[in-house]
Amino acid sequence: MALEDYRAMMERCSNCSGCKWIPFDKIKSQRFSENCPSISYYNFNTHSARGRFQLAQTLLDGDCEFSPDVVEAIHNCTACGSCDSTCKITRYNLEPLDHNLALKAKAVEEGYALPEQKPIMDSLQQEKTMLPGELRSNRLHWASGIDVKDLMKEKGEVAFYPGCKYSYNEKLKPVAANALKLLINAGADVGIFGSADMCCAGRALQMGFENDYEQQAKANMEVFTKSGVSVIVTPCSDCYHAFKRQYAKLGLDIKVMHLVEYLDELIQDEKLVMKNRVPMTVTYHDPCHLGRLGEAYVPWEGKEKKILNQVHTWEPRRPRYNGADGIYDAPRRILQSIPGVELVEMERIREYTWCCGAGGGCSQTNPEFASWTANERITEANATGAEAMVTACPWCEESFMNAKDEDGNTIQVVHLIDLVLQAI
Amino acid sequence: MALAREIYRAFESIVGSRNISEDLGIRETYRCIPAQSSAHFGPYDQKTPLPQAVILPGSTEEVQQIVKLCNKYKIEFKASSTFWATMGYIGSDCAIQLDMRRMREIEIDAKNMTAVVEPYAIGATVQAEAMKRGLTLNIPGVGCSSSPLASTAGWAGFGPTSIFMGCATENMLGAEWVLPSGETLRTGSVGAGSGWFCGEGPGPSTRGILRGVVGTTGTMGVCTKVAIRLHPWPGPDHIPSVGDAPAYRAVLPDNFKGYTLCFPDWGAYANAVNLFHENPDILFLGHRQYNKFGRNLKVAMIKILNDKNKQLCDLPALMEDPVTKKQNEDMKIDVQVILAGMSKRDMAFKEKAVDTILEETGGWKSEFMQEPDIAAWNLMYLLRLGHKNLNYTLCGAYEGTFGLTGNVFVSSSLMEEASALKRKWELESDCIAAVGGDSDMGSISVMGGGGATGWEFFTQFDAYDKESIKNTKLFADATQEWMTSKGLGVDFCRWNEDARRPDGYNYTQEQHDEMYINLPQPHVTAYQYKVREAFNPNKLTGSYYRTLTPEKLKEQD
């Protein structure tokens, strides 16, 4: 939808402040009560979902322009969807996250992208990754030495799609390699896309580059279809969201699973048995794009219909993405299945988790803001007394590896797969 | 209009460049569109004026310096915490907006049962911190997303727990107050260096000037800290919340019970409420809550809010469902109450007392509201009071109309007539949601220990639909006319009509003089004029502070 199409939502926002807090029913302390990194860091109302509704209205009315401060405010949103989930505790007809993305897209369309976004988009065009400096020719280095099918050359049921971070980041490459080996050892008919493997471009959408995203998505969908796989498994939450929610809008009709879902099934089916004790107290960070943004896309076409004079609904019933059905239990079940692991929860979890700061491209375009956001989460993690923070997303993992809490302390950051490997 | 460079830099030097903005787009997000907020005003579709700058102070000292500069350059100012209500926004073109969100400290004194709060500590966070110490606070009807400091220092501040905990004026202790002139005054005991425990002394007692009964809506300077009275919380150190969004539920021990009490007629209802007023120890909370969705809708709405798969489009089918209809009819005249036992014996006494009152008045407990999931949801909803936001669920916008605040026997005797008037508008005009006429809601008591009830009829409309806004205002004209004919005073959505003009700007003194000279007691506003002269000589804080030029009284004489 174009920004103009959100006009009714802009004017129907109730200015209730729900978008600035975790659900009020979930607040346990003041320290960890806020939900939106953007307004928490910048403080001006403009940086909240409410502010963005109002800003967009003003822009459309021609009452302000894309000034440098306005452009910064628009793009310094991690697209984490926290405002969206809390808004929908009470509202049934607003879509704050979609609106934030439409506002970014409008800015990009009008020529108001951030200068830091240019090399990222250039890299997508040229090297098929949104990590500037990385070469397509090096994309498969992470898998060197693993005897795995190239799905463009031979048939397989499951495609393992690591995503850019796991493909290029030296510290994270072993996670992808270990995950793939684990799937192979568990008997999965799994392969990779070989030289056809490219960026999912989900971040392009999160940054407002709709055309670039769509072009890349269609290219990927062509690869997926050509390969004939029936399941795509990814350890990256960003890629997961892109395929499951966004590509599905473009017609992708292949089952998409996050690695944690796949492992959870293997454990349930007793194809993966946790034998070794891993004595460790951990806390789990729900990645935004796996959790509240991990709900499956449901096709819908319809129009607004008012009932009872002034109650606005949709006809037919419109799907409602409020985060209630995100992927929260699978990773927790895996942790609980590992002998010796004790899970202690942070205050902000599941659909009201705090973002790692990397979303919306912010870790690349505004590292100071992203780093502050990650530090906030480390403070929360350390408050639990856990020895390690476990997550299931490379962007989160990278953010937290470089973060410190408010007292300057770090925490060990572990991908779920590493714990599983220790346990089997 | 832009601030002169010299002035902007002076403000900037106080708070730092990161905490001030004069960018047009940023400032535009500090304008209120009253139709989108419940504002006791309107509803109007015009924006409030554009501030010349938005400033985020981080300390009392910074506030003080800003206010002094405003006096030096004759710039109006207004501070707001959460920016929900129109009354928190500026009212002239020559004004700056203070956004208080950087000031959010909460200091709990468990021994003395007080909390010292800064402007951006919201009800939910103060409650969460207090609960860790076995305490809680009265969260007024505005809900837990709003600032207790704002309610306490600046507005009426009554709510569902007022029968047990009192209202804002009863709970306000000392304050740290930056006067409109820029001086800082510490009121009550803290002004004498004796701590925050008392609002009246030792030290200056200024309650009547700082807030009065209804509050001065931030027009008498900026309160940077307020001490509020806390109350016992006989529960866990936080409210354990379970369930899928949006149906979060509280898992609490047996010393918490929520009931929906239902009555055969308004006479029985009034008798029961009166008995609760006469026996104020029984209730922890008393509020007519879910009727805000409307007499015909409330059970259907509760079912929607308790099922993650249901949506507003399910309303018609649910309303036709025979079981829902029966449950709804059962709750036609109802009130929600919560009992909180401080001991087993106390709980047993309270349960027995409620049963006795029901027996004496012919009332009953709604069985539907006792279903375990619904009961747990109800407890969560009422105890945390995130409910302001659910006020918007139906249409996105609402205003309170009628406002049958006062003696329960008077208001309840008029309830059906008021409902019929609203129902007529629902059927004959499509400007407001058709919910069954009666959409009365509010507190069982607006004061500690029981007393007057505080009711309003929630009237939902569509802020995107200009006709809906315009005609809702006409509906408010009709309800005001009815209120006047019954001698009931000012309609709820007109409480601030004399404080801000329909175009969003302040009234001039001349306009206020024309209005207030005709008040039944004009001397009050003439007195307030003199107070303002003393505290706010440069008239920098807008026209929410009602004043009449004293000379006008002499002319009248």
UniProtKB/TrEMBL annotation, chain A:
Keyword NADP on entry: no
Keywords: 4Fe-4S, Iron, Iron-sulfur, Metal-binding, Oxidoreductase
InterPro entries linked to this entry: Cys_rich_dom, HdrC_iron-sulfur_subunit
Name used for this protein in its record: Fe-S oxidoreductase
Pfam families: CCG
Keyword Iron-sulfur belongs to the record: yes
Single GO term (MF): metal ion binding
Domain of life: Bacteria
GO CC term (a single one): plasma membrane
Ranges where the Cysteine-rich domain occurs: 158-244, 327-397
Organism listed in the record: Anoxynatronum buryatiense
TrEMBL record, chain B:
SUPFAM superfamilies the record matches: FAD-binding/transporter-associated domain-like (SSF56176)
GO annotation terms (biological process): lactate catabolic process
Alphabetized GO MF terms: D-lactate dehydrogenase (cytochrome) activity; D-lactate dehydrogenase (NAD+) activity; FAD binding
Record PROSITE patterns: FAD_PCMH
Pfam family, one: FAD_binding_4
Key words of the record: Flavoprotein, Oxidoreductase
Domain FAD-binding PCMH-type, residue spans: 47-233
Similarity field: Belongs to the FAD-binding oxidoreductase/transferase type 4 family.
Protein known as: FAD binding domain-containing protein
